[in-house]
Amino acid sequence: MSQVEKPLKFLFINFELPQSKRVQFEKIIRTQTPQSSTHLSQTSLSRNELIIIIEKSSFQSVITACEKYIPDLYGLMISVEDNNSLRLNEQLSFSWSSITGNKSSFYSGFSLRFELIMSLVVYALAHYNRASEINDCSNESSFDENAKLMVNHLKIAAGIFNFITSVELPRWMNLPEDRPTECRQGFSLAMYELCLSTALSITARKAVKQSTSPSIISKLHCEAWQKAEMTKQFLKDLENSLYKKLPKSLKQIVSNIIIIEYSKTLMFMALNSKAQGKISDALGYFYQVNFSKIKKPSNTKISTILNSIVNDVTIEQQALSRENEVIYFEKRTDINSLPEKPSPMPKSIVNMVTFSPPLPSFMSIN
Fold it and tell me: Record's PANTHER family (predicted)?
């Protein structure tokens, strides 16, 4: 199969972004100075703009709105936390929906940490979904540039999810039991792994276009496979009731990515053996490819992408089998006698973009 014919699309899921209800900080928090009132009004404005944009605008617009609101939110947190002189007209609370429920069902929280984590989740998912949008419109001429954009969005998303699980969730004291799945450590850990798994798969495809050695490409796919396995494990480590509520499409696509990435690992190990003249080993690696457990997606677009990837591997597998029947006449190496096991690169070449909290847009209110 020529490189032009090889699949240029990747398996993504489009997440429904969590939605929220409006909050008017300046009506809830008492202030004594016009400047403080202005800070609160601006924070309300940037937050409510984000809420509207989540419902009606593009994922790139959501990213921009998050980058406008989050500095205001950090300013509010610095100003409010441990401020014993603060007076409220009513209890400050936030309402957010979850990817595990419907848009009209909301979780309520009274902690600014809850608000920050959900805002960061939206920010990260918007980056992931933006990568998915770019994937949809990629073609041969635009692939190289789009691959850079997709990988960058995924690395940024991974960095945000890592920040949530390593920094913000540990800071949230007295976690309420009734909170969205997005506020569970397992969810952010899973999303971190999924983002990097997908980024590795895109990097491997780019390496194919650049005629990189099959040995290196197999290691990229191997790491993508292992990270997809970690994604599944972190999701399954959630409480059983929460795991059952996860979108079926998410669980399905993760299972399919695991099969695809493992199969591609074996395919490039086979192609590497073939390049070295080790036809028996190549046949042995291809023999392990098994698509029987692929779960057929209901989404036509995802199904088409999946079929294209499966066909790519199957065609290479069948081509070697035919060549062996007419040229090589080699016997397949037994699985237990193959010289190599799937292994990733000693050091990953795809890493998250570390998320650093923005400077607060203000430092105090009074």
Answer: BRO1 DOMAIN-CONTAINING PROTEIN, BRO1 DOMAIN-CONTAINING PROTEIN BROX
